[in-house]
Amino acid sequence: MSQSLPKPSSSPAGVDHRDAARPTTSAGRRQEGWAERREERLRSLGSGPARFRELIGKVGSGEHTSTGLDRQEAREAMDLMLSGQASAAQMGAFLIAHRIRRPLPIELTGMLDSYRQHGPVLETPGRRPLCFGVPYDGRSRTAPLLPLVALVLASAAVPVVLHGGDPMPVKYGVTLAELFEALGIGWRGLPLSAAQERLNRHGLALTHQCDHFPLADGLVPVRDAIGKRPPVASLELLWTPHRGEHLLVSGFVHPPTESRAWEALTAAGETDVLTVKGLEGSTDLPTTRACITARLRQGDAERILLHPRDHGISAPEVPWQDLDTWQGEALAALGGEGVLAEALRWNVGAYLWFAGRFECLDAALEQASALLMARSGERLRREMGAP
């Protein structure tokens, strides 16, 4: 009786075929153990922090390996920061890495998407406001004009929407809310509905981050800890709480910042933008040098240079001293007098022209003079509750 022989095996004698997929070296077994340990640690972090760690890797991996974020990833990163799902250490790492590498325009667009989703909303049905974006860390060298410009423009039926916060790193300069309070108009502590009511009635509103956007205000301690201005600060210049048709006026300091803003805002769907190289990064037009601005319409940018001396403006820039000094200067300027009056006339006239109320700048400046002589902005200040 014949007996079948066993089939030849390619495996060494004594090795079970079922072990073929298992690591056969000590190095392989260690690698498998490290992978399991890594996965276990990621699970212990939780889904939000684990995902944010991946996003940090995309912006903080160095010059040759950093890939950057696409629009959706940038929005996701900002969502995780605003919702508190990323730890303080993670947010600090992300923000400083992003600052060093510089954010891509599309990353700013994604972050802007998140701000639009989570931030406060104001509306002006049937009216087209000017929406100003200025640095939240305020002013420390030159006397601000924007609160006065806003009052005079609003008194002339040009609505104005502003936003700001409490004293902010890195400059900790004087804020919009503090300046308005010096004029007798308080914005801090108001519900958003009250800000909307003021916009409806007086054509002027300011959303205050502590009260109206607490999610964003939660990032301030991290910004304070890293001690440098992070990409989030760029959103203060690009974002507005206003929904609807408007002219977005955005301050900038460095030319690369302006070009990134153009790309980011075009991708975000902003159709009418004015970028301004103003005093200390604000939208205050200087009186001692050419005013460098650009109008961005439907993605096409046009450089606009305004020379104050060509229009009879030669006033010096007024240095910042303190709130009490500024209060006296500001109240005088609203009546067309004092050291800030000429700069206020220049700014009001320019923004009346940018808003499309006049075909030529000289005519707009004449109207600005008339508004100051009539104390139009001062009357609105009193109507809004100032003593």
Description:
With 387 residues, this protein is an alpha/beta fold. The protein has 2 domains: 45-101, no CATH class; 123-383, Nucleoside phosphorylase/phosphoribosyltransferase catalytic domain (Pyrimidine Nucleoside Phosphorylase, Chain A, domain 2). The chain is built from 17 helices and 9 strands. The chain has helices spanning 26-45, 47-59, 71-82, 88-101, 105-118, 146-155, 176-182, 192-202, 209-212, 214-217, 220-226, 232-238, 255-267, 323-334, 341-354, 361-373, 376-383; strands spanning 122-123, 130-133, 160-164, 204-208, 242-243, 247-251, 272-276, 291-297, 300-306. The chain has a 7-stranded mixed sheet, with helices on both faces. The protein has a two-stranded parallel sheet with strand order 1-5. α2 (47-59) crosses α3, α2 runs parallel beside α4 (88-101) and α15 (341-354) packs across α16 (361-373).
Task: Please tag this protein with its features.
single chain, 9 strands, alpha/beta, disordered N terminus, Pyrimidine Nucleoside Phosphorylase, Chain A, domain 2, 2 domains, two-stranded parallel ribbon, seven-stranded mixed beta sheet
- CATH top-level class of the largest domain: Alpha Beta
Number of strands: 9
Any idea how many domains?
2
Distance between the termini: 120 Å
Q: Would you identify the CATH architecture of the largest domain?
A: 3-Layer(aba) Sandwich
**Average pLDDT:** 91
Instruction: Please state the CA-atom Rg, rounded to the nearest Å.
Output: 28 Å
CATH fold group of the largest domain: Pyrimidine Nucleoside Phosphorylase, Chain A, domain 2
Number of helices: 17
What is the spatial order of strands in the main beta sheet?
4-3-2-6-7-8-9
Beta-strand percentage range: 5-15%
- CATH-defined superfamily of the largest domain: Nucleoside phosphorylase/phosphoribosyltransferase catalytic domain
Instruction: Summarize the amount of helix as a percent range.
Output: 40-55%
Question: Mind describing the biggest β-sheet?
Answer: 7 strands, mixed
Which structural category do the helix and sheet elements fall into? alpha/beta
Which outline best applies? elongated
Low-pLDDT stretches are 1-15
